Amino acid sequence: MRTFFSLFLMASLTIPMVACQPAQEDSMDEASTDTMADEWITLFDGTGFDHWRGYKQDAMPEGWVLDGDAMYASTPDAGMDVVTRDTYTNFELELEWKVEENGNSGIMWHVDEAAGDYPWMTGPEYQLLDDAAFNDGQIGKNSAGSNYDVQAPSEAVTRPAMEWNEARIVVNGPHVEHWLNGVLVVEYEKGSEAHQAAVAQSKWTGYGDYGTTSTGHIAFQGDHGAVWFRNIRIKPLG
Length: 238
Prior knowledge:
Layout: H1 2-37, E1 41-44, E2 52-54, E3 64-67, E4 70-73, E5 82-84, E6 91-99, E7 104-111, E8 125-129, E9 165-172, E10 175-180, E11 183-189, H2 193-200, E12 217-220, E13 227-236
């Protein structure tokens, strides 16, 4: 009896330990996946252009140079648009930007190089602008922070030319957000009836590939005027 009781006691202590082990492994796997999904990737830290190249080019255009901790389009001209080497689907992008007086540039996303001669032929654009120099400073579909020529920002929060602005773009499935200097200025559902109606009333109505891509490169426009970018990072969303 004593031998049987000892064996029974050993078995009862061992079984729960074995049964709990797979649950611990599953928990660790889930935690690792969540950590990876929330990881920020630095796209530019002021030291080089490793994550960038010219649109439909293998290297960066010579006109893009380092200016302190910023990347600077010093000679705006044809062939100066640049894209990330990697492509992104759902993401959160944060950066700082500034333009010269009368400056004009843009950030595009879901850009498909195979579908057009310029990034704006496929990628929706977050407009960068010296607002004071255009439209008598009034808010419109082409103001800073707008969904360029489709949707105006909700309010004017851009800073004067040659001052740094903070931009944040969130793309999660069809949901898109434009943030400017900490304010949500544009929000829409890509492909919705309301969005399609707004596109139909814009200059993009004649471009069949515009806004139709679901993944692609991040692009910076470098051919419209001097523009600076710094502290660029992206977080892919699961």
